[in-house]
Amino acid sequence: MATKPKDNDKRGRDRTRRRVLVRYGVERPEKTAFTKNLSEGGLFLRTNQVFAPGTVLQLEVEFPERTLSVWARVAWAKQVPPQLAHVLDCGMGLALIEPPADWAAFYAKWRSERP
Question: What is the span of the domain harbouring residue 55?
Answer without folding.
Answer: 2-113
